[in-house]
Every structure is written in structure tokens, then in C-alpha cells.
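Re: your question from the hallway

Yes, I did run it. Sequences:
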Amino acid sequence: MADKEDAEPVTGQPRSLRANSLFSEDELIEDYYDAPPANSGSSWSDNGPSPRLPAPAFSGSSPGTLGDGMEGTTATAPLSPTIKVGWLDKNPPQGSYIYQKRWVKLDADYLRYFDSEKDAYSKRFIPVSSISRVTSIGDQKFEVITNNRNFVFRAESDADRNEWIRTLQQIAEERKSKALERTLMSPTTSGAANLADKSGFLELRGFKHKLFVAVAGDKVFLYKNAEDYRLGIGITYIEMNVGNVKEVDRRGFDLTTPYRIFSFSADSDQEKEEWVEAMQQSIAEALSNSEVAERIWAVESNRFCADCGSPKPDWASINLCVVICKRCAGEHRGLGPSITKVRSLKMDRKVWTEELIELFHQIGNAVANQFWAANVPPSEAITPASSSQERRRFLIAKYREGKYRRYHPLFGNQEELDRALCVAVTTSDLAETQALLFCGAAVTCATGDPQCPTPLALAEKSGQRLQMEFLLHNKNSETPRLEVGGSEEKPYSVPLPSVTHNGFLYKTPSMAKPVSERKGQEEFSRRWCTLQDGVLSYYENDRNAMPNGEIKVEEIVCLVNNPPNAHGIESTFEIYIESERLYLFGLESPDSAREWIKSIAKSFVHPRAEELLALDFERIGRLHYKGGLNLERAKEGWFALAGSTLHVCFEDSERQEPLQLRKLQELSIQGDNEVLVLVERRRTLYIQGERKLDFLGWVHAIQKAAGSAGDTLSEQQLTESDVPLLVDRCIDYITQCGLTSEGIYRKSGQNSKTTSLLEMLRRDARSVRLKEGEHQVDDVANTLKRFFRDLGDGLFTGRWGQDWLRATALEDEEAKISEYRRLLGTLPTVNRATLKALINHLFRVQRFSGENQMNTHNLAIVFGPTLFQTDGKDYKAGRVVEDLISHYVKIFNVNDQEMKKQQDEIMAIMKMREAASSGTQQAGDFICTVYLEEKKTEAEQHVKIPATMTAEELTFEILDRRKIVMKEKDYWSCFEVNEREEAERPLHYSEKVLPILHCLGTESYLVVKKQMSMENMLIYLASRVGDCKHGMMKFREERNLLGLGLSTGFHDRYFILNHTCLRLYKEVRSHKPEKEWPVRNLKVYLGMKKKLRPPTCWGFTVFYENEKHEKQQWYLCCDTQADLREWFATFLHVQNGGALWPSETSKVRASRSQQDSRLGNISLIPLRGNESEMRNSVAAFATDPLTLLRNV
Ligand SMILES: [Zn+2]
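Structure:
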């Protein structure tokens, strides 16, 4: 049996090729061959019941480890101390005689071996618990025998071998006796608590086959396959106290540790979410601290579950003051918080005040059970082995019904009970208070003392801290009552201190991206959810103790009430949290959903913004903004979006202020989705996208709300003066470009263009800029007419339209005008403003009738039927428009000043147009100055840059001119030097020079010189493992003009650069990148300006430009030159698909000739060649330099 173990094929690779890591491909060969037959593990599927992990695999699972200092240490301390360590030879794989040198480590839980003493992750771990025997087999060898595999090691001497055997035997013995002890104590629980939190197959980069991965407690275990998992013999495990999970893409996520990044890939994005959640939970557990547990267990009776007797209970009910096991905690949870408030000793650290811990010493399981379990018939008692159902029945009887309690003599006499309580709380007799309280004394009873109206106040006055603590945790507790189901409906209402809500909700896995598509009902799972004490928790069902997850309300940044039926469940809402995750919940009943939304909103919205809660908001949350006079500091505001109004509670104002989104002058996004700019008449508001997820949600919602909602006038985007923006844009354009256009408004324009323009303007007029040359006057004129013709309810409104038409019959001019004025007064504000704007415009148009041939009458013929939406047969429509234009000044009450202003505007427009038409364009110059080695006159070379010239060709050109021969390892390159930034960038050899010249500012120039670090960069790239780089750098952002850059100065940030993007994390532990840039859009320059006072001299300057040509600039500093070189090399490597330097000169020649043919007959300036060839080419080039540029 032993011989089969760890066999390696004879054809195994030479030892020297072994990388110093278990993760090399080479290891797979070893791993592959020591695997058991492939089908032996087939019964283990990742969806099946979670197999039991070997009991000792997790520290803290046996009582014996309690006192040995392994727990309660800081997170970075080794969880299990090493007992013996040293080099051993592992037996050769089958067919080989070469022993493998391994660094072998033994601790209380595992025997592990590593490639070297430096490795953090083993090649193999064997749980001590699975070791059945250790025997000597001669020649300094010994054999470790487990139930199904044997491992043979060879020590350097017999003495060393014997020492190993002795130690291993001893540890295995100890382990066995502990296991026995535990078994005797509780026959069936040995593995119950050790279920893996999540297990299944995952791809891990670097491995050919999927690995079986188990997240259990505070570790993540890697196994070759499911069979190994069942046997407990794995590759390695990752201590999650140093772990850190980062999502990478749809299915991929990285588990990073200081030693290595494990790049996992799950089968689906849902699977990925679950893994990420499980690993995060595991980190939380790893970072949890057993200090509280240790202190509470200091009292003997607290070391066993108050309900079932399981050892080392690490949960508690903080109002009942009992310490309970995980399984009982689950059932407690189902009783509801008014009966028992369940908290973890290890994870809910905040709740454990000194008072509460002391209370658990004073009351705890002993005193609590003297009361609660005074009369438990043995037939009803539960044990660690009891089923959930048994537990549940017992706990309902014990705590909800109070069936086993020791009745207080005053039971049934409310007045006496209350009076006794008022006395008890002033003493240290907590047992008495407990008995009174849970026999019916009212925690809020009247004391009759005006100074101390409540028992709590009495306790405070008497200095009884523990009484106070006990009363506080029980202020909403229900008195146990025997009638079954009695507690379901509360006969009296308890005033709730904070927001409490619970019930079933449908929930999808949390997401890191916006919900882009409709989620079907099947994607939701029913979860029991509780909102209490500032935590929204969701559980598998209402009996579970461990929530599947929870959301702390202080982390909620946004709550979104989706429109009905946005998903497969009628009412849904989204919760966004600080760490960039989104939770989608749903309910079939809109009323219950509204209740939830109200409760959640109330729980997280700051009291100063509570005004917002009364709104019928679709979205509410907090955001950072800048505004007003002080743009230096971003402030936090509370925002609620309701209809087309954004309500804001600014940091420094008392009341919320409404912002009419449809009236915004500007709504735009700056930077790479970083700042949302809202310009209103009175102010400009910059909303900052600190977090991406909820910010993008806000941006979309605000953009949508700021758009038009329907086809009536008032539903359009409006100007400050209540004119639809669409109308304003068209009028403005015609005024600028069309006043003198012949037949304006009569000529019809192109139908298709009109249709698309109208559609564009209707969608978002704010973003449409009508430009001369791009849009035709007649198309715009037609668009305006079409808008009025199709307008819902018409400009004159359905209700009053006929009255306008009737007014034309009035013979008396004055009477008619006053009737028009009266009717004008009846129009809604937006209609009135729009009519005035339009008639004012037509009034101007007819002033140019000499040129455009459109006098008042002609305009009226066109606009009458359009505005009244008639077929044109009713002449009265035209008459109304004619009257309105003719009597414009009188009807609309226009004063002289207004008239003059308009006149001046028109004159200015005319003048501008004349000036513009005389403009000329400059031709470009494509001769460039390039320096050799440094910027000085003697080193100047003037080079004509053809469209296809690459940086390499330019380099050769310059070197050729100076007759410099490029030797091997002379890495001559062309650099772009930016003097202002004091930074330079070596151009990639294949980069085209001409586009660079076009963007080159006056402070930049090109220089050809040797790239000194190229050799080292190439060596680095060739020698490194993996294709990404991560680490700390000092980061500084360039402040933009508005002062919106987030910070000044350099700050430590953690970066990960992979083959697609550069991610910035606030710190190593951060889960979500703060920023993320596609690498290809980055321009990286070496060096940075000294004015910034970089903390080290190894810095670079990075420019980023997105598709929309929005630019950013920032600075990075490394600690060493080598680090800088490595980052820079990785950048270049990623940006250029690995090719940093042309491998052969022939390639250059080949590509050059290709370019020649592409350009047809024009030959480029040869980079090498005889003089006459050169001259001919230059001549050809000079005759028609522009021909070359057509290719740009
Ligand atoms: Zn228990």
C-alpha cells in the first residue's frame, strides 16, 4: 500500500526544473500520480451533503486546546505552534530512486511538508487525527500510517528518525485520547460543528484540474479531489487571518495573501458570489477574537450550553444571560428577539461591554437555569445529540412558555410584582430581578417616584450597574406565557426603541454590479430576515442561529424602491452598502414591501434628514457632494429622489431643499464617472462618486428623472423660465443661424432627419447641441413645428383652445386683445411661457421678412394649424397666431427695455456670422525636431515624419544620420519628454510617431537615447512568476480645476496590475478596488515634477484618458528603484502584449516593407541605404507630402 503513495513517473522532469513552489505545473505531475483511482471519489459531488471534515482539522474543536494558548492570540500569530520541524527526505515516487528533500513541519493538528522552509503553503498536509501509527522501517526511515495512505520519510540519522517517531506518536496519542474524551462526553457531536461552510470544485490558476476547495471556519482548504477531502488529506490550507478576497470578473475572484494570490474561477457568477461570501465570512471568523469567550468561560457553568450541555458554547442570549451552543442558538433565533437576543461571543464584539460580561459572570448559565430550568422532567431535557425539532420544542417550553421556571411567590399579583421589582433593582440581587421580571413584573412599571419614574432610573440612582444592564437588555422582553401561540400576536403594544422588523423576504445573492437584467422569481431564495439593533440579518430559515449574512445599517448607503414588477417578484428593493455590494430583496405584497422599505430607511437615514422619509421616494441615501462657496471639502448629504425632484439635506442646512431636475441647466458627468455636475440657476452641485455602485445608480436615476416623462408640455425638460428645453434649443438655433433663411418654417426639411432630431431632443434635450453645419435650418424648424403639432393636449390646451379661436370673431381690436390677455392668464404656467417664447421668436422672424420672405401672415398660415392641431381649413387658427404676433408687445406686456435687449442680441448674432465666414484654416507642419541624447542645439535633428513611421524607425533614422551603430544590448529608444511634468516615456518600438506629435504640447519633445533599464526589465520579466504584479505604492491624484481631486499629498495604496487593468485599493485588506483603470488607456511616464515633493525619487506619472477623451493624471511612488523598474516593466509588458523589445532586426525590416506597399508608390525615407536612394525618396516625399497623411 505504501508503495503506491506519491509515485512519480520515470519520465519526471529533472529536479532542477522544479520551481520553488507547490503551484508549479510540475507539482501537478506529482499530484496527478499520487491521486487514488479517478473514479473512487465520484460519489462526492459539491452539491451533495457536506461531508464531515476530520475532527481535529480546526483549532478550537476540542476542549483540550483551550488552555494551551492557541486561542485568544492576535490574528497574526500562528494559530498552532510548531512542535517539530526539519528537513526530511520523502520516499521516492514509484519507479524513482531519488528521494525528495522536503521541509517537514508538525504542529498539534497537522503534519505538513513544503518545498522549502520559506514556503508559506505546503505541498501536502496530513491531519494528526488521521495518523493511526508511526513505525520505523530501517535505514533512518519511518512510515506514517493513516487509514488509507502511508507516507515514508527518511531522516538524516537514526537519532533524528527516532525523535520524529517519538514526537509523532506522542502527538497522535494525545489527539486520540482527546477525541475519546469528547466522544464519551457527547457521543454524536464529534463532527457536528465541523461542517464546511462551503465546499466544492473551483478552478485555480496554475492547476490543470479543478481543485476541491473547502471553506471551513477560519481556513480555506485545497484538496486535489473530493475523495482526498473526505479523507482529510489535502494540499494546503490558507489561514484566512491574512486572507483577503477581491472580485475580478464575472466568475473570477482572487484570494490574496501576503505570500501569494490565489486566482479562483467558479462555474457561474452566482457560485462566485457564494464563494466570495463564504470566504469573507471565514475572514471575519479568523479575525474574530475569543477574548470575550475566554472571559465568559472563566465561570465553570458557562463552559457548557445552558440548554443542551454541549461544550464550549460560543453563542449567548444577552437578555436571558445564558451561554449556548451554535445549534441551540439557531433555535433561540426562531423564538424572536422579544424572547431571546442571540449574539456571538466571538463575532459580535461591540455588544460585549464590561457590564454585560460581568452580568454573565453573575447570572450566566448557573443562575439562569436555577430559574428557567428548575423543573425540567428528564424526559423533556435535551442533550448535545438532540435534533433540531427536539431542541425547538424544549426551548419554546423553556423560554417562551416558561414551563420549567421556578415561580416567584408573587406570581399573578402584578402590583406586588412591580413593587418588588422596584425594590430588587436597587440591590445586587440579580436572581430576584430575573425571577420577578420573567414572572410578570413590568420592566417599565411606574415606581411612584417622580425623580426615578422607572425601575431603570431606580437602579441607576442606586448605582446598580448590572441591574441596569439587565433591565436594558430586557426592556422589550416578553413575559413567558403558557398559552400556546399567545406570543404570536401581542395583546399590548410595546414602544419600540429602534427600528425592528422581521419576516420572510425573497433575496438574490448579493452583487457587485448593478442589476442590469430582470431577475426571474426562481433567482430569489426565501430568507428569514430580521432588522433589529441596527443589523439586517438574513437566515436560511427562521430557526437558524447563524445568519447567512447580515447588513449593518450604518453601512447602508442607499435604498432603492424599484418600480412594481421590475423583477419576477412584484415588489423589489435594493440595498447598497459601503463596500460596494448590492442586495436585491423582493416581496409579493406591495404593502409589506413598503413596510420593509420604511423600516430600513428609518433605520439608516440620519435623523437630521428624517424629513426625507416622508417622501414617496424611489431612492434614498447618502452621498458626498461639493457645492456652495467652499469647494475644498466634500460634505455628506442625504438625498432622496421622488418623481423629477431631487431632495437634498445638505450638511449645513436645516431643511431639505428640492432640486427640480427637469429644470437643470446642465447635468453632466466629469472624469471617469467620478463627479455628477448639476447646474441650476442658483447653484452648482457636484455629487462625488466615492463608491461606484450606488453612485452609478444615482447617476442613472437622476438622468432619467431629469429627462422628459411624456408628451405634454409640463412633462418636458424645462428651462428656468418654464419653456421646454426642446423649444428653447430650436428657437435658439434658428435665431443663430436661420433668421435670414428663405422660407424658414415654410420649407419642410428632410423628414427622416426631423424624426430623428425630434426623438433625440425628446429623449434628452439637455445633451443635444444643435450645430451649424451639422443640422440644417429647415430640419430644425420642422422639428419645432412637429413638436407642437404632436404635443399632448396642445399648446392652447384642449380645454381652452376653442375660446382662443372664438376670440378672433371679436370686431373691436381692444376687446379682442384683452380677451387674448384673459385667455393667456388661464393657461398653465408652462404653456403660457412657451407661447410667449414662440410668439417672441416669430415676431423676430417676421422682422427679417425682407430676406426670409416670411411675414406675419405667412408665419400665421404655417403656425395656426400647427399650434391648434387642426387640418388647416379653419382660418381662425391662423388668425389667432397673426393677432398674437401683430400685438405681441401688448398681449405679452413686453416693455421697451426687453425689446432693445432682443434687438441688440440679433445685431450681435449677425456680426458674428459675418466674421466667422471669413475665417481660414492653417495647414499643418509635419517636420519635427528630434534630439539625440539630450535637448541642446547641437543635438537637433529635423525629421519629416511620415504617417506610418514607428518609433523604432525614427530611432534608426536619427542613429543613421549620426552614423551610430546600434550594438547588442544598446537599447536605443525614442523618448517623449514632458518638461512641464518632468517626466519621460520611452515610446514602444512599434508606436506610430505622428499621432504622438499631434498631441505633443509645447513643453514636450522627442529625444533618442539609450534606455538604461531595458536590460534589467527584460531580465525581470523573464524570471518572474505569473503575469501580474501587486504591492503598495504611494499615490497622489492631480487636483483638477474645481478642486475635486480627492486628496493632496501622497497616500499608501495597494495596487494590483494584471493583464487587463490596474486596480487601486485603499489598503491590502480592501475587498473592492477604489479605482480601476484599463491598462491600455494609461500612459505611464517615468519621473514626476519635483514641485509635488515626491516621497521617494522612484516615481512615475500616469495619464489616463477614457473613450470620451476625459483625462486624469496622477502620480505613483515606489520605495526602490528595482520596484519602480518592476512596475514599469509590468506596465509595458501588459500594454504591449509582452513584447518590450524587438527580438530580431529582421522583423523590423519585414514590417517596414509591408508598410511601403500599403502606401502605394510613395517610398518612405529609407532608414538605411545609399545616398542616392535616400535623395530619391526624399524628393518623392517632398513633392506631395500630404499624400502620406491620408493614412493618418
Ligand atoms: Zn446547546
